[in-house]
Design goal:
This protein is an alpha/beta fold and 158 residues long. 42% of the residues lie in helices and 13% in strands. It has helices spanning 8-33, 60-69, 88-92, 110-119, 142-156; strands at 40-44, 73-77, 97-100, 125-127, 139-141.
């Protein structure tokens, strides 16, 4: 780690930004949903890097801790993590919010979005800092997406 020591200020700034992300997401969810107490929140992704099982430096544990501190009912799905998690369908079932915490390619498949829209609560909030789902925004009500998705898949058929 010698090469790191020449710019500790920058590294600290970057890690501070990263540390702030979970809080930013949780605050954003609370602003939109109100109290998270006993609301089901699905966190998709535990690992730090896309399509790996490396959980070091991942922000998900911090995100999950913050959500649990708000007394949310947290469900986690990560097909790559070594930590056991729930299958996607189970994790997003009846969820009030779904957070894409890692940009695994699995989560970018249209099937993931269909699963979320089909199983989560009708007024579910999608939280996608990676834009894995392609909505172009961090916070999107699922209802806004189901319309655009439906029209998109119809268009794809031709």
């Amino acid at each position: 780690s010698e090469e790191r020591s020449n710019s500790p200020g920058m590294l600290l700034a970057v890690s501070r930004v990263n540390e702030a992300v979970p809080l930013f997401l949780v605050e954003g969810i609370k602003r939109r949903l109100g109290s998270l107490s006993s609301r089901k929140i699905a966190v998709l992704g535990l690992t730090f890097k896309r399509d790996t099982d490396d959980e070091r430096d991942s922000l998900s544990p911090k995100l999950i801790r913050l959500l649990e501190r708000e007394l949310a009912d947290v469900a986690v799905c990560d097909p790559h993590a070594s930590t056991p998690t729930q299958p996607l369908g189970e994790a997003v079932s009846d969820a009030d919010a779904v957070i894409i915490a890692t940009n695994h390619s699995d989560f970018e498949q249209p099937a993931t979005m269909r699963e979320i829209l089909g199983r989560a609560a009708a007024d579910c909030l999608l939280v996608d800092p990676w834009n894995a789902l392609g909505s172009g925004q961090v916070f999107t009500p699922a209802a806004d997406l189901s319309g655009s998705l439906a029209s998109r898949s119809v268009g794809d058929a031709h």
